[in-house]
Amino acid sequence: MANSTATTAQSGPPSSVAGNVKPALMQLEEIELSFGGLTALNRVSLDIRSGEILGIIGPNGAGKTSLLNVINGVYRPQKGRILFQGQDRTNYRPHQVAAQGVARTFQNVGLFKGMTTLDNLLAGRKSFIHTNFFLQALYWGPALKTEVAQREKVEQIIDFLEIQAIRNTPVGTLPYGLQKRVELGRALAAEPKLLLLDEPMAGMNLEEKEDMSRFILDANEELGYTIALIEHDMGVVMDICDRIVVLDYGSKIAEGTPDEIRNNPDVIRAYLGTDEN
Amino acid sequence: MVDEFWFAMEVLISGLLQGFMYSLVAIGFVLIIKSSGVFNFAQGSMCLFAALGFVSFWEAGLNFWVALGLALVMMIVLAVVIERVVLRPLVARPPLILFMATIGLAFLLEGLAQALWGTQPHGLELGIPDSPLEGLPVDISQFELFAAAISLLLVLALVIFFHRTRVGRALRAVSDDHEAAMSVGISLQMMWGITWAIAGGVALVAGIMWGTRLGVQYSLTLIVLKALAVLILGGFNSITGAVVAGLIIGGSEKLVEVYLNIIFGIGGVESFFAYALAMFVLLFRPYGLFGDEIIDRV
Amino acid sequence: MIFRENGQYAATYAKDMRIFRLREDRVAVAVLLVVAFVVVPLVANDYWLSSIFTLFLIFSLAALGLNLLTGYCGQLSLGHAAFMAVGAYAAFNFAVRLETPVLFNFIGAGLVTAAAGFVFALPSLRIKGFYLAVTTLSAQFFIEWLFVSFSWFSAGSMMGAIDTPPMRILGWAVETPRDKYLLTLGVVTVLALLAKNLTRGEIGRSWMAIRDLDVAAEIMGVRLFPYKLLAFAVSSFYAGVAGALYAFCYLGSVEVTAFELALSFRLLGMVIIGGLGTIMGSFLGAGFIVLLPIFISITVAAFATRGLTDFLSNLELIVFGGLIIFFLIVEPYGLARLWHTTKEKLRLWPFPY
To answer: Is A133 on the interface with B (CB under 8 A)?
Structure first.
């Protein structure tokens, strides 16, 4: 399935055949970000197109996570624009970005470790709950109704990710691979328009990677979520991504289909002599 | 007019000198935060523990320097025990948990010190009178001058230690980057032990100074509270900050206390003024005057 | 108590989401309530009712408030005793100046304190972590100073000393230790239930998310500032009501020193020992701290006879501090988790595998 999408995108340069190119869900234009003189992102422009899986790769310290942080509104770029569904939202705060339907997982697992799996997933449903303080204190009427509705939704995700057995376990006590899966579940619970995954397979064994790849592809194909992911495992990236963007020292050095990236001399140069993980 | 000026100067100078004594306590905090990231609430109890131990040794008939040395050794042993028993099991836990553990430690040390050496206040007389120097237009207490000089010497000694000795450099490396320091063969546990021992030594000096002023008794643990205000004003990880903030707070709180009382008849502002000032500054500089900004990383 | 989970299936999510999902738990709670409301008032003498049970309930409520803030939302407060003072003096002023009904006074005291907590939480917009914890100390010192310095708050009496006026609720004169115990029990029961509800819903999850990883919480859509403010306000509300009860149902004659910094630390100790982030832990911790001095003095009295008072108070400090460290190292979720673990074992007993 993923391959067929890839070939569509491959059939021509992005701008030439309009019919084959999906509309951009998110556009980053000339993003510049630096910390006290240290440049993290240098005029990076890229599109994330509706329905695709976009891979973001590059050596360590290339600015990949900083890029996600800019999208999430954690860092504010000094220059550049961010458009979401055509609307300028460059200076949105993280919670506003979340309300627009952007969900995220983290490099070193960003779960709420003291909470159970169920509560973590329910936390992902934050934007769907609008009952007021007093109703929640009474746990009654609309508040109870909303809670039950969220619970039903979350149970679907629990079934989808096959994590029924750890429903009431505090996630801090779970093994690493399961934590990664719960974290994906929390992001899915938000029913995101755009799903950002920061190294979803880091530290996993082969079997866990296969499972995770399957969940990501299912989320893309069955649930229809647009996904941008950072990953160091080139095999995985080449397999599941429709398009790939390569960052090096904070600049974008290449963009294209997996095949184009594989043969791009700049990319090969950037990776030569660096640790490929 | 002239009298009023000298009166204000007197208030200010006495406040500034008091400020040095706040700094003495705050420096103990800074040392531990810099090396281990732990916010050690027990610093005040360590002052009490050290001073009470020292006074008891001295009163037992030991020579002044022997008693001092013995108290120092005691603080070093204490530091090693704290590192083993409290800190090591809590490594890698959230900072808030470590902070609360040091609150527990504060109670433990306070109880232990008083159980060992009694709850009676001990007078402490270093032979420097707490009376004004003669021949000056303003009254400046000799003892306060002495305490300020000791504080300055201590800061100087710490700066030299951190920049000129092997161990000091290793400690700075640890505070810059734990993992990198470990990778070049610096033992983290050892360094933490050393820092706590130094902080124990600083607590001994601060405890003796404050003990001379207030008597060696449980209220020494409360000076930690004023030192906290100094600490947040100066920034958690800056010795310079601790000294400068100590002077700012010492000077301004005395002036405010005295003049609010004279003009409006309101007293006791001293009890919270330091915090109000520190909080106000934090609104503009959330990491204190000299503290390092923390960038969120995810 | 032996648990039999077999056959108890939750047919709907609503049933699965009840506070006490198992029939055995519900029976146990019902029994506990009957004991608290009926048996204790009938059996216990005045000393136990006032000095143990009422005090225990008041501290539980205050600890519960602090637990919402520190255990759930991860924001440390070193000024909760002062917030109790705000509640006590607010209730006093409602009672003597406006002569409003007793329960109104208590709720009003909670609301005034919530407002105070809100104000002192405003710096949390800019200030984080320890810096914020230290600023809560300023609340402690400022509020103490306020009540000592301005006799308006104590209706004219010097140094903030007040005597609480008699209480009457719809013809029920709340006079004896038994009456006061029952009033306290009623208030605490209702507020504990509300707290439980808050913490198991969206607000509680958002608080815990902020506690566990604030950056991730924000990215998941939790606005940090309003939720922190809410935590401070709700927590202060509980402290305020507890303070009002402390004044009206326990102390009677109140001085500002009843709410000094040491009490703030005792509350923190209760929360840590009882269990951070659990409602039940607040009760266990409060019970533990109330009983600790009694327990220590009984134990020590069995061994020694002379010079006890100093030694006892020091021993209490040592045990208190030691336990805080012990629980943080060994069992961060405190007595509540120990209880839970025991229950889990009983659930499987006698076939642990």
So the answer is: no
